[in-house]
Each structure stands twice: as C-alpha cells, then as structure tokens.
Amino acid sequence: FCTGYKLSAIDLLPKGVLDKLQYNEDHSKFPLITYKGVWHPDVPNLTFINQSESLYFPGAELHAKWVTMVP
Fold it and tell me: Which of the four, 4, 8, 32, 67, has the lowest number of CB atoms within 10 Å?
C-alpha cells in the first residue's frame, strides 16, 4: 500500500498493532518504534519500506531488497 511520504494509511492497522509499534502521532518524523525503520520484533509479518531520512529511492530499494532476503 503506497501512500507517499506521510504515514497516511496508518489508520488501517488495528489498535493492538499500533500499541505494539508504540505509535505516537505527535512525532512527525518517526511516529513508530521499529528496527532500522523497517521491523518491530512484536509484529514480525509487518514491514515499513523507507520510513527513514535516507535518500528516498535508493533507501526504498535497499529496504525492499533487505525485506525480501529475510525469511
């Protein structure tokens, strides 16, 4: 689900998942607690691509490749 720069689709996640991610809507840059901006250990089947301040397209490509290599 590609939404652009903001986490506008975050409302699609159940409240229990948002609680595990420690979602804070007041924090504009990093509203979720994740490992390397991609994973959270309590939600192993959910990843976020390029939720960091890296170069946009190269960062997104590296995250996507990394996600596909993890079993």
Answer: 4
User: Which tens digit of pLDDT belongs to each residue from 7-59?
Assistant: 566 778 899 988 888 888 787 666 777 777 778 888 888 887 766 665 677 77
Q: Among residues 27, 54, 67, which one has the least CA distance to residue 7?
A: 27
HEC sequence for the chain: CCCCCCCCCHHHCCHHHHHHCCCCCCCCCCCCCCECCCEECCECCCCCCCCCCCCHHHHHHHHHHHHHHCC
Place of tokens 């840059």: 29
**22 torsion bin: left (phi>0), alpha (psi -120 to 50), beta (else):** left
